[in-house]
Design brief:
Elements (H helix, E strand, L loop, with lengths): L1 H36 L6 H22 L1 H4 L3 H21 L15 H4 L6 H5 L8 H81 L4
Helix pairs in contact: 1-2, 1-7, 2-4, 4-7
Length: 217
Amino acid sequence: MLGTVAGLAFAFWRWMQIITLIPTLGMLAWFVRGFTSSNVLTPNYVLVLFITSVLATAWALGTLLMYHRTRHSAFFVSFVDFCFAAALIAGVVVLRRIGGEDCNNFAASGFYADLGPFGSWGSSWGSEWARNPNKTCAMLKACFAFSIMNIIFFFTTSFLALFIHRAHEKKEGRHEPRGSSSHSGRHTHRRSNSHASHNSRHSRHSHHHQSRREPFV
């Protein structure tokens, strides 16, 4: 019963991950496209979260669609979810500067100056990516917030997968000893019957052999 409840909770939080990861992935892809089209290296605060969100989205979709197989390897799923949570923490740490920025006055901030084609450098030569600083700030803040949410979500699914793994082990443990003990009992019974039959035949053979030898004594 508890394993079923944990499975339903796992599926729910998987959906929450997918719902929040897809917008994050889309917004970060927009930033990656802007940097690459401007022939500028994508900074780590975008690249780390972009790669992590791509892999995490694929992982979440795969494990949700193949849940009937996932529950049999729940310990591995728990470990991978924990790794994704750690990777998201790294991405949030790299992007932490956006957390304290004011989007209403983003063009005057120091972070805006480091945004390449999206910041003051792009604005100086009329880049299309730098036309709306408030939009750039809002999108980065949304990615930052969704990533923090997914840290919690992936820690939750990691714990639930571990719980499902233990419940599955207990369920198998309740069934295996009965079958194995029954099989062992049948095997022992067959061996004891065989041994008793062999002793009986040996005893009859010895008695018959002695009775045949008595007249010669």
